[in-house]
Amino acid sequence: MPRWGMTIDLSKCTGCASCMVACKVENNLPIQKPEVILQSRDISWMEILPMKEGEGFEGGHAEEHSDHEEPSRMRYLPRPCMHCDDPPCVKVCPVYATTLDKDGIVSQIYDRCIGCRYCTNNCPYTAKLFVWNTPEWPDEMMAGINPDVSVRPKGVVEKCTFCHHRLQRASEQAKAEGRPIKDGEFLPACLEVCPTQAILFGDLDDPSTPVARAAASPRAFRELEDLGTKPKVFYLKEDY
Amino acid sequence: MSINRRDFLAAIGGAAAGYGVSKIPLTALVDIAGGDYSSVPAVERWVTTSCQICPSGCGMIVRKVDGNPVGIKGNPLHPLSRGGLCPVGSEALHLLYSPDRHRAPMQRVGGTRGKEGKWKKVGWDAGLDLLKQKIRALVENGEADRIYFLDGYDRGMLSETARAFMAQIGSSNYFLDRDSNQALTSYRLTQGQKRVPAYDFDNTRFLLSFGVPFLEGWQSPMQGQRAIGTIRSASSNDDPRTFVHVDTRSSKTSDLADRFLRIKPGSHGALALALAYVLIRYELYNQAFVSEHCSGFEDWTDDEGVQHQGFKSYVLLHCRPEDLQEVTGVSGADVVELARDFAASQPALAVADGVSLALSNGVQTGMAVMALNALVGSIDVAGGVRPAEQVPHPAYPWAEDGKENPGDPVAGNGLFHFGIQDAQALVRTVSESKKKIGVLLCLHSNPFFPRENSDQFRDLLDDKSMVVSFSPYPDETSTHADLILPDHSFLERWQDAVGPRTYPYATMGITRPVMDPLYDTKDSFEIVLDLARSLAPKGGDLFPWKKSKDVLLWLAGGLHELKRGSVFTNEREANEIAKMEQRGWWVRSYPDQSDFWSELLDRGGWWDPGLSHGLWGSLFRTPSHRYEFFSRGLHDWLANQDPENHVGAHGAILLGLRSKGDVAFLPHFEAPDYEGEEGEESLLLHVVHPITPNTAVAASLPWVREVISGRLAWETWVEIHPADARHRSIHDQGLVWIHSGDRKVVARARVTNRVQEGLVCVPHGLGRPAGGRWARSRGTNPDSLVQRRLNPLSGMQETQSLRVLITTADQGVTHA
Lengths: 240, 816
What we know:
Chain A has helices spanning 18-26, 34-38, 88-92, 118-122, 164-176, 189-193, 210-215; strands spanning 4-9, 47-52, 56-57, 74-79, 98-100, 106-108, 129-130, 157-158, 199-203, 220-221, 233-236. By secondary structure, chain A is α+β, with helices and mostly antiparallel strands.
């Protein structure tokens, strides 16, 4: 059984946010009014997190009093769901709506979810997002909805699934042909548009795959590794 | 259409569904949402096409389910994009499904231009007849010069055809609506090329950027992304390459640079000259290249025995890094270090664009930066600068024998001679003709977007003028139009997608319809062909195609005959082809043209991976047939304009320069002229371009808007330094007014040390009075503040030269 994981090479990533938009298209994310963003109730499964070099994430700290001669330098971190091997969100879900699947994907079952938001609180990566508003599309846009991905109603929690629907299709194909899934047969949407090929995806347990090699490189690290969540998203640090 | 929990649970029937989606009857979910996926099993198809949103023309693969496009990914075989897409391209489906599209041709039957209009739908035949009658009447009256074509598409066969159509009906008024044209003038003055220079970023080892917004809204966002990504990832793989960014403000580009030098506004050229000083003084420059292929480096004597100053003595006398430290804010030691690194890492490439050139000294800055490339010999070598290869094509049916492609249409004699025929040139031409516009055809162009010249555009019209917009989307130009003949979205039409002007390889993607048109729209290429066939004398002979697909088949026929290039390939095949071509070999892969055509469609296009370098003899089209440090082209032109006093005071005034004598023709530095509010309280305004092309197209994409404005919810912001903010009692996130004369716009303050003191930065692209639901009335538009001064050489607006006042605004002020 493959253990699906991802690496994101921060020396290649330019923070362009194509992955963010491609994810929204693939996974039928709602078009949100800007007012929703002001309430911090916007939803992006993949997000580019800006942070100040040496200071961590930008949490809206004003710089009104910082007269540093040197301008602050920003870093950009693409943040999907980390699909932890020891996921803190799963431990607190009272209704088994979020579980660690056997192939390593942390799944989200919308029709079980009761919207208690324990998992959103417990996720240290803020990857879990509560649907505060009824998703809406203009009628003309409904023809462009991806039929493989359900739209989520208001009141549940959603997050990056590693484009799990694509795994299901690839598995069915492989099963029909009586073979295991090949490397590269199942790829998430964010990877498919990245202009600099910063994202790799595949079976972390197969040492021959590019993703496993990248995850084993000395440049690889994981976010908040000391929490023991064992994320399956590895970042490759910039080399200077 | 909205989905609620009750619908959701009803649709899945309370089933104990698995995670993810497709184990539960998701098609049912989409059905309740109004989609039409009831036919099971769904038929899936993938169609290769090319993006047409910006000039990059990236390769796309569209996923269709039961005939509806539902997803887009990059085409890994496209040589420029290699499977990538920018955020705008990733959201291209929303251009197809945009709820605000024009759905049929419409004629204005009342109302005022620019305000509420009364419209009626006309059929295509009737709409096109209206336009043809108007054009025919003008031509028959001998007033063909009152017909104007403003082409914002600006590439490929559509533009060539439009240009030829205008020439055939006897009007020379074909203009390009191009936003960034800054680099062209300095390229023309130093190397005689009438195109924008192209850059070989893949092979450069040291990229020195003077304000080029590689990761923001550069000419080709994809080429910028790929350039930076390539350099950074090569460095991580023991192939050290360096990217140095020089600019006035921190940006995403500066964040990702190996080194960022923050310099004072308007001093990019001074820094380039200080670097040139170090290269020359310590003999770090490529002496062989300079002596063999350059002129005007040493002092020289012309045919009449007059002594002229050369670049070397000018730089050594005036450009010591220590002396220019006051101007640039960069220390002499830093300059020496940078110059040494630049000279030591060959091939090295210096590029200027964006803010650095949109000032009164912009052309000279461009020349100074280009001089760095000449000094290290990075002209027409791998990893250097060179003109883009053009996609070969059979002779145009309208071409006169022996005439090569003329390059970009350049402005006529007189001022602005070294620029192109752009929207500003259109305004000048109409004003000088003393007649109002008869017909204005706006193709992928939005001249009425409120910027400093949009009022001028209104003044060029009278009641009898006919403004025609081909835009598929509502924009400011459609509100001013008399006739709207809406184009298909690019996912519904055939077109050639040539690579960007700054990309050195000849590349032609194929854009093909991925579905039948959703609405009663018409391919603008076919409209232009129809106009040309029916209005031009001998139109049927000169424009033999009826459909845009016919044009592509004609182009493909030419490429098939050619003994060069290939359908899109992966990188390994491309290397093999390039090596073979260098040795004079070529293998025909497709004996039959129909096989070639189907492979072309499958793979997405054609390109030629072989680039020949070092053809300096034909490259430099200057009077001296060399690279000109001392621009003899400019000197000779000025001598013709003003034979009496061409290098004296009058000459300098014509050129808009303070420098006199030989210096005026050399890359040199003079402080830029600013305009607007003066005094201690004033701040310099820079308008920065996030990744939003000027068309209404990207503005109508909600997710792109979200990505650009971050937490600021689609509002216009102004970046201001903490000290400047404190002095004016401005707080982070507070509303402020930006004043220029009697105009003012409101913006939200972003107090940050990422801008320097004395400078404020505002994004371009918001504040549209018209447009779709996601474009209209969001934010404010700094362009309405920018004054109208044009650079006398390039004709380009000096958009970064405005001084403004900033005051706090009441919270009650509505942002829109």
